[in-house]
Design brief:
With 300 residues, this protein is an alpha/beta fold. The protein folds into 2 domains: 96 residues, 434 Repressor (Amino-terminal Domain); 194 residues, Endonuclease, Chain A, CATH 3.30.870. It has 14 helices and 6 strands. Strand 5 and strand 6 form a beta hairpin. The longest helix is centred in the N-terminal third of the chain and has 18 residues.
Amino acid sequence: MHAPAPLVDAPTLEHYLVVSARSPIALRLILGHLLRTLRKAARIEAEAAGKSIRGSEAKISRMERAQVTCKHDDVMDLLTLYGIDDKHVRACFTEIVRISRQPGWWHRFDGILPDWCGKLIGLQEAASVIRTYEVQLVPGLLQTPDYTEALVRQAYPAAAPEEVRDRLELRALRQNILTREDAPRLWVVLDEAVLRRPMGGEPIMREQLRHLIHMSRLDHVTIQIAPFNRPGCIAGGFPITHLRFDVPALPDVVYLEQLQDAEYLDKPDETQHYRSVLDGLAQAALSPQESLDLLDHVLN
């Protein structure tokens, strides 16, 4: 049985390639989503699909959840099993597989980048909207180089100069998404404590505050401050990042960072819960203009 045409027609797949080509991780997720959707549309159980590629139900699950990179022959065999024989569609899948197997630019920083953080970078590269709530530090996408360096030296006091340099370069490269022609919308809610904590000392913090003011005036950046005197601005005391995509095959993703690990949530009920939390924070926080006024007040 063929899957519904809108899911697998060549123009749609070509669109996915265009909007996500910069992020192999995003294409890996798209590929997994499409394979799962095609399998269910064909009414084929995961066990049977696994046997068709000389694997198991667990292998199909890992492929569909993008926990592994897919092999070209496996994908082609599954497309045949699912009744997908259009040459243009299969050619698009071939290209998706090829790009999804490539390392992202951030992989050259593997020596300093935790495994769980690379996925976040790849998702940010493909996101259309990034929403973040921070309780202690300025989000990485909005940090100045001096603020980042102060943070790195505090977190890694034994780091060699080369490691510090690499961490600063990685941060700067990640921030490039905000200067792209198709930059994502960045919506940040900062706890007031972030402004009051003089990371690196007063001169560095003043420079950082000026940078936040500058960034808040960009059309695609919104910064809101959650002040101390509003009880509705409390959300458990941990940072939250919510990512949305202009690609139907990519669900929303919530990123929750911990001390030595991170959790990625993509089930609709989970992501909707955290989206509601962020909506509540944004509603309780100062408006963008009030936040800009507070930033200016703290600076002066």
